[in-house]
Each structure stands twice: as C-alpha cells, then as structure tokens.
Amino acid sequence: MKLNIKDITYSGIFTALTAIGAFISIPVGPVPITMQTFFVLLSGVILGSKKALLSQAAYLILGLAGLPIFAGFSGGLQTVLKPSFGFLLGMAAAAYLAGKITETREKTTLNITIAVLAGTVVIYAVGLPYMYYILNIMLVKNLDIAKILEIGMIIFIPGDILKAVIAVVLGKKLRGRLF
Question: Are 137 and 81 within 8 A, CB to CB?
C-alpha cells in the first residue's frame, strides 16, 4: 500500500479522534461507554479498510507505548490485562471490515449501514470473549455468560444504535466530500 501525505494525515486525524473519543467516557462497569466506536466505524467508512486499520493500529501502538489515550486516561502494556482491552483489539478489526465493505460495494445508505453494523458485531465478537477470559480466568470472578453479555454488551446497545445512525449519515456525507 502506497500512502501519500493526504492518506497519512487523514489516518492521523482518525487516530486522534479515537483518542478524543476515549476521553468522552461514562464509567458503567468494567467497560465504559465512550465515543471511540463512533470514530472507529467512521474511519472505516471514510478512509477505507487499509487506512482505517492504520489509524487504529497507530492508536493501539501509542496507547500500549504508554500514552494515556485509552478510556480513563490509561495506557501502557498493563492495559492488556483490563477486561476492556479486547474491545480495543476488536475496534481495529471493525475499522478494517467497515472499510472493506464500504470499498467493495456501492456507497448507498444500506451498504454503509451494513458496514457499520458488521463493524459493531466484530467489536463485540472480539471484546466479549476477551472480557470473559480476563474476568473469569485471570480475576476469578465466576461470571456466567448472561452476566458478561449484560455488562459488556446489553447496556451499550442503545448508544451503539445512536452512534451507528450518526456514523452512517455523517460517513456518507463526508466520504463524498473528502474522496
């Protein structure tokens, strides 16, 4: 993949937006409600798969290197042991998938909606098993799957729907103007 200055700049902007989204946080348990997923999905819709993945990989690398850019102003290698870290990994995959779907299909509202929803599913598909592992195996909390779904997904669904709708509308408008 050959990147030009515009590609690197847009990827960097989405790295920064994802970090800012982490600071817009409501603590509700082991995983806070943040605006990160909104910017992650928007990066996929606007940048496409590779540049969106680049932006989210940069975000992860900066956070793991110690910059306090994860939710709760955290960062560093120790964040790998937090129940919410799997969702961060899922966000990188979600950005790529949302971008891939957006690249390979006509840019209709339906296809962008499918891309955003698929990305959201990936975030949960990676984040929930990771959270289960950390809470039950590492921290020996003995939570059943229903409790994991409750604290890691169910309470987030209304906000995720709102963020998805805004990402679809904004993504469709911005993609046409930026690229």
Answer: no
Q: How far apart are the first and last CA of the chain?
A: 17
31-54 pLDDT per residue, tens: 788 999 999 999 999 999 999 999
Give the rounded percent of residues in the chain with a pLDDT score beyond 70. 99
Domain count of the chain? 1
Strand partners, 33: 26
> Which CATH number do you get for residue 21?
1.10.1760.20
Q: Is 179 exposed, middle or buried (0-12, 13-18, 19+ CB in 10 A)?
A: exposed
Q: Are 15 and 58 in contact (CB under 8 A)?
A: yes
How many Cα atoms occupy the beta-carbon half-sphere of 88 within 13 Å? 27
Domain range spanning residue 115?
Answer: 5-178
pLDDT tens figures, 74-105: 999 999 999 999 999 999 999 999 999 999 99
